[in-house]
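Researcher: Let's continue the batch. This sequence belongs to Cyclic pyranopterin monophosphate synthase, and it's 156 residues. Same format as the previous ones, please.
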Amino acid sequence: MDLTHFDETGRARMVDVSAKEETDREAVARGKIIMKQETLERIRMGQIAKGDVLAVAQVAGIMGAKQTSQLIPMCHPLAITGAKLSFDFEEPDGISIEARVKVSGKTGVEMEALTAVSIAALTIYDMCKAIDKTMTIQEIYLAEKRGGKSGHFIRG
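Model: Same format as before. Here are the structure tokens for Cyclic pyranopterin monophosphate synthase:
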């Protein structure tokens, strides 16, 4: 498979998607943030001074998905039709993050889902860094995508 973001001279380019069919597309990305047990418990109990950490991270993740083309140079601006983030506490010391992003368009939303997870994790870090500078953001990956020319992908 050729890399599509380079032209015949090896220079970077934005892929021309004008000839592609519009299809319904969806991408799911996942990641996690590891922290001290005490930090996790304070998030769970709503005892972080800056507010409801997961509510803010959820909004930030959605905003991140919507801003992806402004952050990643070769991404097309997309009219996202849906974005949803969910969080699960993983004992003893982590929070898993999942983003599900949808669009009806000519290109996929993998980067938008990955950006949503990344921004949500960074927001958790920002809101809790005063009490835990050891937090680690880990394992951000594309879990699934559907729609478009390449079809349905599920990470094995």
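Researcher: Any comment?
Model: The chain has a mean pLDDT of 94.
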